[in-house]
Amino acid sequence: MANDNSEAPIRLEHGKFKAMVVCWILGLGCLVSWNSLLTIGDYYYNLFPRYHPSRVLTLVFPPFAFATTAVLTYKEAKINTRWRNLIGHTLFFASTLSLLVVSSADTL
Fold first, then answer.
1. How confident is the model over 1-51, as pLDDT tens digits?
2. Cβ distance 57 to 47 under 8 Å?
3. C-alpha to C-alpha distance for 29 and 17, rounded to whole angstroms
4. Transmembrane stretches, by residue range (predicted)?
5. How does DSSP classify residue 10?
């Protein structure tokens, strides 16, 4: 009772390069965001020398990030992923734009 399937299975590698590129891009995105998180305090100290950005960052950012994460985690199955991504990128753009506006208003 021997099997005639003595051939080795065929190894499919046609998607390996695409998967490596996607993983590299995702890893780079994690490194860039981690780097900005580590250096944002120094940047704000240079940008606003008369204020105390370390107090603002530690008091404002964590509750906002925790609340956003909690809402998105709780309603993850009900929120359309496309809209969630669009809203996240829009919030990021608006906050970056507001930083530029505050910075330019401070120099006037």
1. 555 566 766 766 777 888 888 888 888 877 887 777 777 777 778 877 777
2. no
3. 18
4. 21-44, 56-74, 86-105
5. P
| Contacts for 84 with CB less than 8 Å, ≥ 6 apart | 72
Question: How many residues make up the chain in this entry?
Answer: 108
C-alpha span between 85 and 56 (Å, rounded): 26
List C-alpha distances in Å: 77 to 72, 80, 87, 102: 9, 8, 16, 37
- Please check whether residue 72 is in contact with residue 85, taking contact to mean a CB–CB distance below 8 angstroms: no
- Residue 72: pLDDT band (50, 70, 90) is confident
Q: Kindly report the average pLDDT of the chain as a whole number.
A: 77
Tell me phi and psi for residue 8, to 5 degrees. Answer: -75, 145
Is residue 59 within 8 A of residue 51, CB to CB? The reply is: no
